[in-house]
Write a structure and sequence with these properties.
Elements lengths: L15 H10 L16 H8 L12 H19 L3 H14 L4 E6 L5 E7 L2 H15 L6 E3 L8 E3 L12 H24 L1
Antiparallel strand pairs: 1-2, 3-4
Helix pairs in contact: 3-4, 3-5
Length: 193
Protein backbone atom coordinates (compact mmCIF):
# COMPACT_ATOMS: atom_id res chain seq x y z
CA UNK A 1 0.00 0.00 0.00
CA UNK A 2 0.95 3.59 -0.36
CA UNK A 3 2.47 5.41 2.54
CA UNK A 4 2.35 9.02 3.46
CA UNK A 5 5.41 8.76 5.66
CA UNK A 6 8.09 9.80 3.16
CA UNK A 7 7.93 11.71 -0.08
CA UNK A 8 8.37 9.80 -3.32
CA UNK A 9 11.28 10.77 -5.58
CA UNK A 10 10.52 13.72 -7.85
CA UNK A 11 9.21 12.73 -11.28
CA UNK A 12 10.30 15.29 -13.90
CA UNK A 13 6.95 14.84 -15.70
CA UNK A 14 5.05 16.18 -12.70
CA UNK A 15 4.94 19.98 -12.19
CA UNK A 16 6.27 21.03 -8.79
CA UNK A 17 2.95 22.65 -7.84
CA UNK A 18 1.08 19.43 -8.69
CA UNK A 19 3.53 17.35 -6.66
CA UNK A 20 3.05 19.69 -3.68
CA UNK A 21 -0.75 19.43 -3.94
CA UNK A 22 -0.54 15.62 -4.25
CA UNK A 23 1.65 15.47 -1.13
CA UNK A 24 -0.86 17.65 0.72
CA UNK A 25 -3.80 15.46 -0.34
CA UNK A 26 -1.93 12.31 0.68
CA UNK A 27 -1.35 13.74 4.16
CA UNK A 28 -4.91 12.66 5.03
CA UNK A 29 -5.62 9.32 6.69
CA UNK A 30 -6.11 6.79 3.89
CA UNK A 31 -5.29 3.22 2.81
CA UNK A 32 -5.98 -0.03 4.62
CA UNK A 33 -4.82 -0.14 7.33
CA UNK A 34 -5.41 3.58 7.66
CA UNK A 35 -2.35 5.74 7.64
CA UNK A 36 -2.31 8.58 10.17
CA UNK A 37 -2.97 12.20 9.33
CA UNK A 38 0.58 13.43 8.84
CA UNK A 39 -0.52 17.00 9.54
CA UNK A 40 -0.75 15.89 13.20
CA UNK A 41 3.07 15.74 13.30
CA UNK A 42 4.41 19.34 13.41
CA UNK A 43 7.64 18.41 11.62
CA UNK A 44 5.86 16.55 8.81
CA UNK A 45 3.24 19.31 8.59
CA UNK A 46 6.02 21.89 8.12
CA UNK A 47 7.57 19.72 5.41
CA UNK A 48 4.26 19.16 3.56
CA UNK A 49 3.29 22.83 3.76
CA UNK A 50 6.75 24.25 2.95
CA UNK A 51 5.99 24.69 -0.79
CA UNK A 52 3.04 26.88 0.23
CA UNK A 53 4.73 28.73 3.11
CA UNK A 54 6.17 32.06 1.94
CA UNK A 55 7.89 32.53 5.30
CA UNK A 56 9.67 29.19 4.95
CA UNK A 57 9.35 26.04 7.03
CA UNK A 58 7.78 27.45 10.16
CA UNK A 59 5.84 25.11 12.43
CA UNK A 60 2.21 25.72 11.47
CA UNK A 61 -0.22 26.83 14.14
CA UNK A 62 -3.17 24.59 15.08
CA UNK A 63 -5.51 27.16 13.50
CA UNK A 64 -3.62 27.03 10.21
CA UNK A 65 -3.61 23.22 10.26
CA UNK A 66 -7.40 23.20 10.67
CA UNK A 67 -7.85 25.60 7.73
CA UNK A 68 -5.50 23.48 5.62
CA UNK A 69 -7.40 20.31 6.58
CA UNK A 70 -10.67 21.88 5.46
CA UNK A 71 -9.18 22.86 2.09
CA UNK A 72 -7.59 19.40 1.75
CA UNK A 73 -10.93 17.70 2.48
CA UNK A 74 -12.74 19.81 -0.12
CA UNK A 75 -10.08 19.05 -2.74
CA UNK A 76 -10.30 15.32 -2.03
CA UNK A 77 -14.09 15.61 -2.35
CA UNK A 78 -13.62 17.22 -5.79
CA UNK A 79 -11.45 14.28 -6.87
CA UNK A 80 -13.82 11.69 -5.37
CA UNK A 81 -16.99 13.22 -6.78
CA UNK A 82 -18.94 10.82 -8.94
CA UNK A 83 -21.28 13.30 -10.59
CA UNK A 84 -21.02 16.85 -11.93
CA UNK A 85 -23.35 18.01 -9.14
CA UNK A 86 -21.08 16.50 -6.47
CA UNK A 87 -18.05 18.12 -8.13
CA UNK A 88 -19.81 21.50 -8.20
CA UNK A 89 -20.77 21.15 -4.53
CA UNK A 90 -17.17 20.35 -3.52
CA UNK A 91 -15.85 23.38 -5.47
CA UNK A 92 -18.53 25.55 -3.83
CA UNK A 93 -17.49 24.41 -0.35
CA UNK A 94 -13.85 25.15 -1.18
CA UNK A 95 -14.85 28.61 -2.37
CA UNK A 96 -16.84 29.26 0.81
CA UNK A 97 -13.97 28.13 3.03
CA UNK A 98 -11.68 30.45 1.11
CA UNK A 99 -13.94 33.47 1.53
CA UNK A 100 -11.38 35.05 3.90
CA UNK A 101 -8.85 35.09 1.06
CA UNK A 102 -8.54 38.17 -1.14
CA UNK A 103 -6.64 38.23 -4.40
CA UNK A 104 -5.76 41.08 -6.70
CA UNK A 105 -5.08 40.75 -10.39
CA UNK A 106 -1.67 42.10 -11.30
CA UNK A 107 0.41 42.00 -14.46
CA UNK A 108 3.93 40.73 -14.90
CA UNK A 109 6.60 42.77 -16.70
CA UNK A 110 5.76 40.70 -19.79
CA UNK A 111 2.11 41.74 -19.48
CA UNK A 112 0.74 38.38 -18.31
CA UNK A 113 -2.10 38.59 -15.77
CA UNK A 114 -1.62 36.83 -12.45
CA UNK A 115 -3.35 36.70 -9.10
CA UNK A 116 -1.57 38.03 -6.05
CA UNK A 117 -2.89 37.39 -2.56
CA UNK A 118 -3.49 40.53 -0.52
CA UNK A 119 -5.42 39.18 2.50
CA UNK A 120 -6.03 35.95 4.38
CA UNK A 121 -3.84 33.07 5.50
CA UNK A 122 -0.84 33.02 3.13
CA UNK A 123 -0.41 29.22 3.21
CA UNK A 124 -4.07 28.54 2.46
CA UNK A 125 -3.92 31.22 -0.23
CA UNK A 126 -0.93 29.58 -1.91
CA UNK A 127 -2.67 26.20 -1.84
CA UNK A 128 -5.72 27.76 -3.53
CA UNK A 129 -3.50 29.54 -6.08
CA UNK A 130 -1.64 26.29 -6.85
CA UNK A 131 -4.96 24.53 -7.48
CA UNK A 132 -6.17 27.44 -9.62
CA UNK A 133 -2.97 27.24 -11.66
CA UNK A 134 -3.48 23.49 -12.18
CA UNK A 135 -7.08 24.07 -13.30
CA UNK A 136 -6.02 26.91 -15.64
CA UNK A 137 -3.21 24.78 -17.13
CA UNK A 138 -5.70 21.91 -17.64
CA UNK A 139 -3.62 19.62 -15.44
CA UNK A 140 -5.99 19.38 -12.45
CA UNK A 141 -7.75 16.52 -14.25
CA UNK A 142 -4.50 14.55 -14.01
CA UNK A 143 -4.89 14.31 -10.23
CA UNK A 144 -6.64 11.07 -9.40
CA UNK A 145 -7.53 8.85 -6.49
CA UNK A 146 -6.20 5.31 -6.84
CA UNK A 147 -8.82 2.92 -8.22
CA UNK A 148 -7.99 0.42 -5.46
CA UNK A 149 -10.61 1.29 -2.85
CA UNK A 150 -8.40 -0.07 -0.09
CA UNK A 151 -5.66 2.39 -1.07
CA UNK A 152 -7.19 5.76 -2.13
CA UNK A 153 -3.75 7.31 -2.63
CA UNK A 154 -3.82 10.49 -4.74
CA UNK A 155 -1.46 10.52 -7.72
CA UNK A 156 -0.66 12.59 -10.80
CA UNK A 157 -1.55 10.72 -14.02
CA UNK A 158 1.43 11.05 -16.35
CA UNK A 159 -0.06 8.98 -19.17
CA UNK A 160 -0.73 10.65 -22.50
CA UNK A 161 -4.31 9.31 -22.53
CA UNK A 162 -4.99 10.39 -18.93
CA UNK A 163 -6.41 6.95 -18.13
CA UNK A 164 -4.15 5.74 -15.31
CA UNK A 165 -6.31 4.03 -12.68
CA UNK A 166 -3.86 3.09 -9.93
CA UNK A 167 -1.15 5.03 -8.18
CA UNK A 168 1.05 1.96 -8.72
CA UNK A 169 0.21 -0.76 -11.19
CA UNK A 170 2.66 -3.13 -9.51
CA UNK A 171 0.93 -2.76 -6.15
CA UNK A 172 -2.69 -1.75 -6.59
CA UNK A 173 -3.34 -2.54 -10.25
CA UNK A 174 -1.99 -6.05 -10.05
CA UNK A 175 -3.87 -6.78 -6.80
CA UNK A 176 -7.11 -5.42 -8.24
CA UNK A 177 -6.75 -7.44 -11.43
CA UNK A 178 -5.89 -10.67 -9.56
CA UNK A 179 -8.86 -10.18 -7.22
CA UNK A 180 -11.20 -9.60 -10.18
CA UNK A 181 -9.84 -12.69 -11.95
CA UNK A 182 -10.36 -14.84 -8.85
CA UNK A 183 -13.90 -13.50 -8.40
CA UNK A 184 -14.73 -14.34 -12.03
CA UNK A 185 -13.21 -17.80 -11.61
CA UNK A 186 -15.26 -18.45 -8.44
CA UNK A 187 -18.37 -17.21 -10.20
CA UNK A 188 -17.69 -19.49 -13.17
CA UNK A 189 -17.18 -22.52 -10.91
CA UNK A 190 -20.39 -21.74 -9.02
CA UNK A 191 -22.42 -21.52 -12.24
CA UNK A 192 -20.92 -24.81 -13.54
CA UNK A 193 -21.98 -26.73 -10.44
Amino acid sequence: MATNQSPEPADPRIPASAAAVVDLLNSRPHATPALPDTLDDPGRASEILSPFDPAGRRVPTPERIERVRAVRDHLVAVLAAGTPAQTAQAWTLLTEDGSELTFQQTFTAAGRPQLQQVAGDPVVGRIVLAVADLVTADTWSRLRICGNERCAHVFYDTTRSRTQRWHSYEVCGNRTNVAAYRARARSGRASDG
